[in-house]
Amino acid sequence: MAPERPPDGPAIETTDLTKRFGDVLAVDGLDLAIDQGEVYGFLGPNGSGKTTTMRMLTTLTRPTSGSARVMGVDVADRRELISVVGYLPEEPPLFDELTAREQLRHVAALHDLPRDEANDRIERYLDRFSLAGEADRRLEGFSTGMRKKVGLIATVIHEPPVLFLDEPTSGLDPRAARTVKDLIAELSGGETTVFLSTHILPVVDELADTIGVLHRGDLVAEGPPDRLKQRAERGGAGSLEDVFLEVTTDHAEEATATPDTQS
Amino acid sequence: MNVGHSLRLTRIDVRRMVRKRTDPDNWVTSIVSVGLFALLTLGLTAAGVYGGRALGRALASGSLDPSGAGVATAARGVFGVVWVIAVVIFAVRAVGQRGTLTNAEGVLTVVPTVEAYLGLVASELVYLLIWTLLPAVGAGVGLALGTETLWPLAGVPLAVALGGATAVAAAYALGLGVRHVVTRFPFVARHKNGLIALVFVLYMAAIVSGSLNQAVVGLFEPMAASPVGWYADLGLLGLPNVAAAATHAAGAVVASVAFAAVAVAAGTAIARRHWFADPALAGESEDDHEPADSATSRPSDAVTPATTDDDWLARRLETVVDRPTAALAVLAWRRAARAPLKLMYAAYPLFFGTGAFVEILQTGEIPAYLPYALLVFVAWAGGVVFTLNPLGDQGSVLAPTILSEVTGRKFVLAHVLAGLVVVVPVGTVLVGLVAALSPVGAQKTAILVGLSPVAMVVAAGLSVGIGTAFPRFEATNLTRSMEAVVPSPWAFVLFSAHVVLTAVAAVLVGLEGARTLGATLIGGLASFVLSTQVSVAPSTLYAVSAVALVVLLLLPAASYRYAVRTFDRYELA
User: Fold this and answer.
1) Which residues on neighbouring strands pair with residue A18, listed in sequence order?
2) d(Cα A68, Cα A32) in Å, to the nearest integer?
3) What kind and span of H or E run contains B200?
4) Are B290 and A89 in contact (CB < 8 Å)?
5) Which residues of B189-208 are buried (b: 16+ CB within 10 A; e: fewer)?
6) Residue A154 CA to its chain's centroid (Å)
7) Residue in B310, B328, B403 nearest the CB of A102
8) How far apart are alpha carbons B492 and B472 in whole angstroms?
């Protein structure tokens, strides 16, 4: 049973959210407020803490300190939270021994979806992602892109109000990537909140209402794509890539690099 | 051809193996692994020195066979049979684990196939020599000491090295050919699991019926007469009272080089076909070529069509349990049915039963102890099949499972149920049948039949907690084309110890004769260790066993509850 949505509150809200692994500070006092129906592009270099953040927001990892709520549900309350989130890790979680249809039916059953409703949704999504003809093949023979599609369907099958997607378009051909982007746009139009982590900047540029850039566990930049682009060193002509490179450059590295570049 | 490239590949392969075996992150496993290796090789080397010296003295004194012909023939036969066994072992390795290159794309696009192939064969030879060279040196030293001749110091290791090289070269080519047929021919590939099971059954049948022994004995004379026997001449050349021929010894060296070259050439030709051929089963292993993004680019028989009517079983089960629990149980069955060899570890204890099978075949009777042993085995098997690694079995799907309506109670119940539904009927019937056919009598048969389901339920309840406490997520190679996530060694050891201890406690509580014997044994052992007279009364042993039995039988309930709580609070690292 999904908890009632907060009428006006943010879909995702974190306050001083921190995660340490021993001496390593993975996420450092993260403060976020993401509105319902928003697509939040979450950027950051490798190892910046993006996946850890998503795991904390989906209860898969416990924060060291701070607090977070998703659709008003505290992330410490897994039983309540599971009905409001869907999480697609970077590597789609699939059983190789199953067929795509069996995998999706299994996930639907775990979410306790009524069988007929689940089957309807599965057929609809399989058709949409051009997988209907492959649905009865075992996943062990699927390509990276096909696996990604099945993983994405499994993530949205219970139609949660908040989606956490880790690199949903990587490994997809342009047509499949288009389908995914259209789906994200459609879901967010229907008030689903999408927390989108990716390295493919054009995807974020196209879909995100707000972008947050995480660097070494710190949120170093946040705002709508256009405003961030204006922040870039090259002014109005700056691209999202310029923004990314600027805010994730270590000043220490800059200082080291300067003499060489000047010579 | 650049042999340096091959040797570099060999060096990398061996280095990876060594680092894997001495991984500081798994220091317990590393210590056990390295310790066992040191113990075995040093033990064999010492045995080689001792045995070699004794043999050398006997040869020198002429007490074995003054003519020397018999000794030479026997040595040739032994060497020949061992060579054949080595070929079989390394061929099986090539079919299963070692038939492909690690990081094949990165190697085959950089060096010619022949160099890659030679590197892999050479690394197999290194693994053979790691185990055999030191004992061979020991045997050579022993023979040299015993006969007071120098040649065995070099001759025995040389014979082992050259014999090993030809065995590995032949085995790898042979194994790669078999592997090609198994993985690249659609019909064979589709029935691979059945074929492996058939080979396993035939192998066990050969052991049990004694055919394997007969075959090995039958090989003795032909191999003694074959050029493979010449390695014995090479190793024993110049020893007193041994009719080793210098021509044979020289022939062994020359023929080895020629044979190895031909075998490598043949193997390279097979490798050129195998390593670049499309797999018959798409996605069969990570080292095979990645299937294209479009399904149409794969052969039409590339995958095995799966049933689309997967609702029937789940619907039936949903009449008893809720939908998520039924889904998890059906998932466990389906995955096991599709990849039964991944549960092969559950059959390992059957190897210990070989003696009993032989006894049954020879006498035509079932020994009285077998129903009891079988009861322990079915309880053990019931605990390891689906419940000894429930978290690890989920693999990457664990996160979505945690983020679903599945609670710890449902998760644990599903796995226990999945195991018990299968093993309780099968195990009970099996124990009942064997007990009925054995001389234990009707009353004990009834008791055993009644105890079987109880034992399996208790074992499953215990194993699910242990499996949850020691989850294992890393896959282990069963064969090169099949990886499986098997339970962790700790889970195996703790669970097996519990089953054995419970069985022992039950026997000590239930059988007076066992108590008396046990008390005598424990008293004797304690006296030996403490160097003072210690006696244990059977009544004391009864009391201790009874208490232990109660505790051991209560542990599963706590274990089950622990598993439920752990799943509910589980976090990814």
Assistant:
1) A65
2) 9
3) helix B192-209
4) no
5) beebeeebeeeeeeebeeeb
6) 14
7) B310
8) 11
- Taking the alpha carbons at both ends of chain B, their separation in whole angstroms is 47
3-class DSSP state of A59: coil
Residues in B touching A155 (Cβ below 8 Å): 400
> Which among B302, B322, B401 is the nearest to A141, CB-wise?
B302
Residues of A in contact with B398 (CB under 8 A): 93
Distance from the Cα of B300 to chain A's closest Cα (Å) equals 11
Cα distance between residue A78 and residue B404, in whole Å: 10
Mutate to test the interface with A, among B405, B409, B478, B483 (most CBs of A within 10 A): B405
Contact pairs from chain A to chain B, CB under 8 Å: 133
B405/A82 CB distance under 8 A: yes
Considering only the beta carbons, identify the residue of B308, B310, B404 that sits closest to A110.
B404
Task: Tell me which chain A residues have a C-beta less than 8 angstroms from the C-beta of B311.
Answer: 105, 115
- Write the CB contacts of B85 (distance below 8 Å, at least 6 apart in sequence): B216
Instruction: Spell out the domain ranges in chain B.
Output: 3-274, 316-485+556-568
Structural contact between residues B163 and B231, judged by C-beta atoms closer than 8 angstroms: yes
The residue behind tokens 């090539």 is B94
Q: Residue type at B375?
A: L
The complex's ipTM works out to 0.75
pTM score: 0.68
Beta bridge partners of A218: A215
Q: Which residues of chain B make contact with A139, given a CB cutoff of 8 A?
A: 283
pLDDT in tens, chain A (263 residues): 445 555 578 999 999 999 998 888 999 999 999 999 999 999 988 888 999 999 999 988 889 999 999 999 999 888 889 889 999 998 888 888 888 998 999 889 888 899 899 999 999 999 988 899 989 888 888 888 889 899 999 999 999 999 999 999 887 888 888 888 988 888 888 789 999 998 888 888 889 999 999 998 999 889 898 888 776 555 555 677 777 777 777 644 544 444 443 33
Please report the residues numbered 46 through 65 in chain A whose beta carbons come closer than 8 angstroms to any beta carbon of chain B.
55, 58-62
